[in-house]
Specification:
The protein has nine helices and 13 strands. With 329 residues, the protein is α/β, with parallel strands linked by helices. The protein has a domain of 224 residues: Rossmann fold (3-Layer(aba) Sandwich), CATH 3.40.50.720. α7 packs across α9. The longest helix has 22 residues. The chain is globular. The protein binds nicotinamide-adenine-dinucleotide (NAD) and uridine-5'-diphosphate (2 copies). The site of one uridine-5'-diphosphate has 15 residues, from α5 and β8.
Length: 329
């Protein structure tokens, strides 16, 4: 536990969401002071309920497309709707969150001389023609499709981060996060892991989009947060020069088809659900797997939790939520 001299004041934007709330738990556990700025668009106060009276935690209801003046040492910029149904709901606001939000958080970091982390995404690679994806691949992204508000917004945010780094000497850390899952995922956000588990637990049909042959690689939340913290903790350069800015892929390189994921979920939940096929959404990437050589080299990091173990923990969480909802109904 850090003492009051080592203790950092940390801003986490999007901290009421899935990734952000787990990150905040870890920061508080190690003794930091945390301010969470979130407009609660997709996040929930329920994710932070257990911290309500925590002496080192503060919640601000704030939309990062507007300026923010706080005094902190470190900034983690996670605010952005992440699931396709959420980011398509108001695509203009999604791009504004990535772009105006990045400008505001970078302006804040510049004023304070604070190190700043950006939660970028594997979506910057689009429907990739290079497999597995290395950080030097520039991507294959449709600029005018229904995923573009998210993909191009995140790409522009990366551009802004690297330009503030080059132009103003900001100490930036840009991570490209691949599909992550675990407790506190929103049960209705349409993402594949939450959809399949909810469908399996309720005995509903499991909806496979396309033929289910498309692949993803799923990282358990604890592993992901560990990678994020290691990256942010890597020291700055000599004489206070910025440290390694990235981009760095963070994800689990174990690739499987969505059909195989459905079978695993059915097996682990002992469900009698049947598979049904639905149309593949536009621009849905066919293959995705991170090359994590850079994360291994710079952070000494790789995921440890197997898909089976991670799914078991996530299923237990969703089961508990269902009991909770039933009590409140
Ligand atoms: P999430 O939807 O659970 O969390 C996002 C949070 O941002 C929510 O609490 C939401 O209310 C908040 N938010 C959205 N717009 C905001 C705004 N304008 N101002 C303030 N707060 C705002 O999603 P998540 O899965 O926790 O994702 C967190 C970050 O990680 C996102 O930036 C996402 O793009 C990135 N990411 C996630 C994954 C994944 O698999 N979960 C993969 C790649 C990248
Ligand atoms: N900003 C902020 N908090 C701060 C400092 C800046 O939200 O503590 C915002 C402010 O809205 C500004 C943006 O960050 O427009 C970019 O700041 P920068 O200093 O890069 O640019 P400028 O102020 O010259 O537009
Ligand atoms: N998917 C699916 N059934 C669902 C939800 C998603 O087959 O009920 C597919 C989706 O088409 C995609 C993959 O699962 O190929 C991962 O989808 P998700 O929305 O979780 O993440 P992303 O497409 O952003 O990787």
């Amino acid at each position: 536990m850090r003492n009051y001299i080592e203790r950092k004041r940390v801003l986490v934007t999007g901290g009421a969401g899935f990734l952000g709330s787990h990150l905040i738990d870890r920061l508080l556990e190690r003794g930091d002071e945390v301010i969470c700025a979130d407009n609660l668009f997709t996040g929930s106060k329920r994710n932070l309920e257990h911290l309500r009276s925590h002496p080192r935690f503060e919640f601000l209801r704030h939309d990062i497309t507007f300026p923010l003046y706080v005094e902190v040492d470190l900034i983690y910029n996670l605010a952005c709707p992440a699931s396709p149904i959420h980011y398509r709901h108001d695509p203009v606001q999604t791009t504004k969150t990535s772009v105006h939000g990045a400008i505001n958080m970078l302006g804040l970091a510049k004023r304070l001389g604070a190190r700043i982390f950006q939660a970028s995404t594997s979506e910057v690679y689009g429907d990739p023609s290079v497999h597995p994806q290395t950080e030097d691949y520039w991507g294959n992204v449709n600029p005018v499709g229904t995923r573009s508000c998210y993909d191009e917004g995140k790409r522009c945010a990366e551009t802004l981060f690297f330009d503030y780094h080059r132009q103003h000497g900001l100490d930036i850390r840009v991570a490209r996060i691949f599909n992550t899952y675990g407790p506190r995922m929103h049960p209705n956000d349409g993402r594949v892991v939450s959809n399949f588990i909810m469908q399996a637990l309720q005995g509903q049909d499991i909806t496979l989009y396309g033929n289910g042959e498309q692949t993803r690689s799923f990282c358990y939340i604890d592993d992901l947060v560990d990678g994020v913290l290691r990256f942010m903790d890597t020291p700055s350069g000599e004489d206070g020069a910025p440290g390694f800015p990235g981009p760095i892929n963070l994800g689990n390189p174990d690739e499987l088809t969505i059909g195989q994921l459905a079978e695993q979920v059915i097996r682990l939940t002992n469900s009698s659900s049947k598979l049904v096929f639905r149309p593949l959404p536009p621009d849905d990437p066919i293959r995705r797997r991170p090359d994590i050589a850079r994360a291994r080299e710079h952070l000494g990091w790789e995921p440890k939790v197997t898909l089976e173990e991670g799914l078991r923990r996530t299923i237990a969480y969703f089961e508990q939520c269902r009991v909770g909802y039933a009590h409140h109904a």
